[in-house]
Each structure stands twice: as C-alpha cells, then as structure tokens.
Amino acid sequence: MEKVEFIYLSQEDVLDLGIPLKEVIELVELGLSEQGHGRVENPPKPGIHSKPDAFIHAMPAYYQKLGIGGLKWVSGYPSNRAGNLPQIAGLMIVNDMETGMPIAVMDCRWITAVRTAAVSAITAKYCAREGTETLGLVGCGVQGRMNLVGFKEVIPDLKEVRVFDISERAMQSIKEDYEVELGVEITACESVESAVNGMDIILTATQRLKEPLVKNEWFKPGCLGFGLEASRAWYGDAILKADKFITDSWDQTMYFYEHGAFPDGLPSLYAELGEVVAGKKPGRETQDERILAINIGLALEDVIVANRIYEVAIKRGGFETLSLMERSF
Ligand SMILES: NC(=O)c1ccc[n+]([C@@H]2O[C@H](COP(=O)([O-])OP(=O)(O)OC[C@H]3O[C@@H](n4cnc5c(N)ncnc54)[C@H](O)[C@@H]3O)[C@@H](O)[C@H]2O)c1
Predict the structure, then answer these.
(1) What CATH code is assigned to 118-298?
(2) Which of 45, 206, 255 best tests ligand 1's pocket when mutated (most atoms within 8 Å of CB)?
(3) Which residue ranges make up each domain of the chain?
(4) What residues in the chain have per-residue pLDDT under 70?
(5) Helix residue ranges, H only, the chain
(6) What's the CA angle centered on 27, arms 110 and 43, to 5 degrees?
(7) What is the pLDDT of residue 83?
C-alpha cells in the first residue's frame, strides 16, 4: 500500500548539505522582504515554561506568494550547559502548502544559528555606517561566532574585532578558528568596555545576565548596536536614547515588554527590519546616527531556510524517509 512519507534530517545531515551562509543571508533577506510587503503569516510565538529561565516555543510561518510554510519547535534551557546538552535545541517541520502534509522533519540547531547571524548581517547591510571596519563582540558562543562570520560576509572591509567573554576558552577559540580564516585581527579583551567602546558595530550574544553590560557612553555616534538577548544586555538609557530602534518584529518586542523585557521602558519603533529590506523605510541616513537593533528571531527566518534544506536534500537523495501513514482512503 502506498505510504504518506516525510524526509528526516539529523543535525549531521543538515550540516553535510553544506549550504553556504551567503545563501542563507540571501534567503532570509528575501523572507524579510516578503514580510515587509505583508505577504507572510507569522503569528507571535506561544511558549511553555517548565523552568523559570527556560522555554519551548512554537514558531509557525507561511509565505503566501512563495507557497512555503512550516514550524519550528525550539527549546532554550540555559542549565543544559552544565550537562552535556546544548542550550538551544529542537525540530523543524516543513509542510506541503497544498495538502498540509508534513514533508520534512529536521534538526533546527544549525538553522537557528545561521538564520540569526543572517538577520544581523542583513541589518548591518542596511544600517552599518559607511566605512565600517571594527566590531566589538560580547559573548563568543554559537551566536557570537556565527555573527562574526555573517558580518564579514556583508562587510568585507571588517578588520578589527575585539571580543569579551567570561570564558577565556571561548575567546581563545574564536581567535584560533576565525582570525586567519576571515582575515581579521581578533583581540581578547579584559572587560566589556574595552571590547565595545567606540566600535563601529557592537553585538552582545550572552545569556543569564544579572545586570546589563553595555553602557550608553560606549555606544558612540555612528555605531550600530545589536542585542541578541532581547533588551537584557543593554542599559535602558542606551536603548531609549538610540536615534533609531529597529527590530524584526514589533509584536514580539511588545510581547517581551509585557513579560518583563525593557524594564526602563519600551523604545519607540523606527522600523521593522522587513520594512527596511522591502524599501519602505531607509536604514541608515546619516553617518552619525546611533542605531540599535534588537531582533527577536522570527519563524519566517527559519522556515525559508528549512525549505531550502528540504529542496537540496530531495535533490541529493539518499536520506531517511519515515512513514506518517498508509494512504488508505
Ligand atoms: N534573537 C535571536 O534570534 C536569537 C537566536 C538564538 C539565540 N539568541 C540568544 O543569543 C544569546 C547567545 O546564544 P548562544 O547560542 O550563542 O549561547 P552560547 O551559550 O553558545 O554562548 C553564550 C556565550 O556568552 C558568554 N557569556 C555569558 N555571560 C556573559 C557575560 N556576562 N559577559 C560575557 N560573556 C558572557 C558565555 O561564556 C558563552 O560563551 C542567548 O541569549 C540566546 O537566547 C537569540
């Protein structure tokens, strides 16, 4: 009897496909442009919380014009770091938009890492100051590393990277792994201030903070700042006094605000990133403005990448397929 089947891809399968970050950036830029044109269904993510600092989020998205859709079911458990498990883990499902049938189930870790870096890279493409050469990075884990690679992709002139992490090993390994490969000078710093003060781009990618890290006075004119931990790593005055506040989702930003983020007040929105990418609002307009981007992470960014992974895997062939049901009607 004929079966309804879907393809299954482990993390290793996804990695083996070797989809380049450049392609991920192009895909996510297309996705954000579709969002900016109002052609994506991407409801705010609901979550469950089995521990005070942990979540499992359901993140669906549907592209009306491109005809693709799916769901990410992703967990974030900071305490996993003490054991032998990653903080972020989960599954993606890609669905056939004609029948609703699942056509692929895959690990979501690589997708989460690269699409987040792609969103930052796209923000930098539209909002970094002309002549940007320096980056201050706080947190050298999965996101710090990927974001560095993403920035270099869109800003080939990037030369100087200063990093700070509470883990010496994390700083050493980002230097060993990327200094030569990317052709940038990476300096491990002894404080947040020495890593970020006066840099063209500042990005924080840490976790579990008791207090913010980046002070307003280190966020100089012309700087483009990023906080990957929602508002947690940036002091309230830096957030509120930025000339432009950008996010990939204002709905999600307000939802986070209602649940305790932005304790000093919600900044006023300049633009959603999708509006900038779709050409509805300009990104950077002057060399001096301070732009802060707090991109929350959207299902539409995951789904467009997962769909490409599915297409590439089907074309290559040889991956495991699992049966959903017998076709018995
Ligand atoms: N916005 C998004 O779309 C999105 C997507 C994925 C992850 N994130 C967030 O990005 C952050 C980083 O995620 P990750 O996967 O890279 O985590 P990770 O655990 O791989 O790396 C975090 C790094 O931050 C360092 N760190 C922790 N506290 C620090 C401090 N006070 N000062 C300096 N360094 C510190 C750790 O030593 C570690 O190297 C998390 O907050 C995560 O929730 C956001």
Answers:
(1) 3.40.50.720
(2) 206
(3) 3-111+300-326, 118-298
(4) 1, 329
(5) 11-17, 21-36, 109-127, 142-154, 168-182, 192-196, 236-241, 250-258, 273-277, 299-316
(6) 80
(7) 82
Give yes or no on whether 3-111+300-326 and 118-298 have one common fold: no
DSSP string, 249-314: -HHHHHHHHHTT-STT-PPPP-EEHHHHHTTSS-S--SSS--EEE-----HHHHHHHHHHHHHHHH
User: Beta-carbon neighbour count of residue 260 at 10 Å?
Assistant: 10
pTM for this model (two decimals): 0.96
Residue 137: enclosing H or E segment and its boundaries? strand 134-138
* pLDDT digit string, tens, across residues 34-48: 999 999 999 988 899
CA–centroid distance, 171 to ligand 1, in Å, is 13
3-111+300-326 fold:
ornithine cyclodeaminase, domain 1 (3.30.1780)
For ligand 1, pick from 45, 143, 169 the residue to mutate: most ligand atoms within 8 Å of CB.
143
Question: What pLDDT, on a 0 to 100 scale, did the predictor assign at position 104?
Answer: 98
- 124 Cβ contact list (under 8 Å, min separation 6): 132, 151, 154, 155, 201, 224
CA 311 to centroid of chain Cα atoms: 22
pLDDT at position 324: 95
Name every protein residue with a CB atom under 6 angstroms from any ligand 1 atom: 76, 87-88, 112, 116, 138-144, 164-167, 170, 205-207, 209, 228-229, 295-297
Report CA(25)–ligand 1 centroid distance (Å): 21
Ligand 1 centroid to 206 CA: how many Å? 3
Q: What is the pLDDT of residue 1?
A: 67
**Per-residue model confidence (pLDDT) at position 207:** 84
Beta carbons within 8 Å of 98's beta carbon, 6+ residues apart: none
| pLDDT tens track for 285-297 | 999 999 999 999 9
